[in-house]
Design a protein that fits this description.
By secondary structure, the protein is an alpha/beta fold. About 40% of the residues lie in helices and about 15% in strands. It has three domains: about 1-110, NAD(P)-binding Rossmann-like Domain (Rossmann fold, 3-Layer(aba) Sandwich), CATH 3.40.50.720; about 115-145, 2-Layer Sandwich (Double Stranded RNA Binding Domain), CATH 3.30.160; about 150-215.
Length: about 240
């Protein structure tokens, strides 16, 4: 495995984007969604990037080597010029700063996967730089498969996460609860009956005796085994 998959919390962290064209725009939009504090350096900046001027620091001039500072959590070389991107990458490597050279994985210190987003749910797809096109095709297939019910389900689980934690002592007991919940195929229930059915089922389940969630053949040490003898509360 060449790359170590990771999700970074870059809220309020400084990030530098070198480049002001269409390639840079895509990176800027996704970085803004993640809450990064972005600085853009480029002699030419698209109007579609200028519209972010209240949220992004724009410096209209060519890149200079001293722009590459360790104050930045990440640096993106998105100039559209391979030689310049490679130069940025080499300087960052010497300074031990993580750099992504867009569309040039050979000089990337990290790569950006294709992302499937459904509310709080995010699925990252990577071919380790072999074929970004394949990653995009797989992304499209996942988007078709994961309908709006995936967003609803993830948000419901997020909403009830704290209540389940308060109701069941210990990680193993909570894992049994959520495993049995997911074994019941809540996505299909949302498709058939809507989210209200799931919500009512979770409310009823949280008022059942805690012992109900552990079957005679299932212990907290093996919570991920499917429980067929005891159906979910709304079944």
């Amino acid at each position: 495995m060449r790359y170590y998959p990771i999700f970074l919390d870059i809220r309020h962290r400084p990030v530098l984007v070198i480049g002001g064209g269409a390639i840079a725009l895509e990176k800027i939009e996704n970085l803004l969604k993640a809450g990064a504090k972005i600085t853009v350096i480029s002699p030419d900046i698209l109007p579609s990037i200028r519209r972010f001027n209240r949220r992004v620091t724009l410096i209209e001039r060519p890149f200079r080597r001293w722009d590459l500072s360790t104050r930045y959590a990440l640096i993106f070389a998105a100039t559209g010029e391979s030689a310049l991107n490679q130069r940025v990458s080499a300087i960052c490597r010497r300074k031990r700063i993580l750099c992504n050279t867009v569309d040039d994985p050979a000089y990337c210190h990290f790569i950006i996967p294709a992302l499937v987003r459904r509310g709080p749910l995010t699925i990252a797809i990577s071919t380790s730089g072999v074929s970004p096109l394949l990653a995009k095709r797989l992304k499209r297939q996942l988007l078709e498969w994961l309908g709006p019910e995936a967003t609803i389900l993830t948000k419901l689980m997020q909403r009830y996460r704290l209540q389940v934690k308060q109701r069941f002592d210990g990680f193993s007991a909570r894992l049994v609860f959520w495993s049995r919940f997911l074994d019941s195929d809540p996505l299909a229930t949302i498709q058939r009956e809507g989210p209200k059915s799931i919500q009512m089922g979770l409310e009823r389940a949280l008022h059942c005796p805690a012992q109900q969630w552990i079957s005679p053949t299932q212990s907290p040490s093996s919570p991920t085994k499917s429980v067929k003898s005891k159906p979910w509360i709304w079944s």
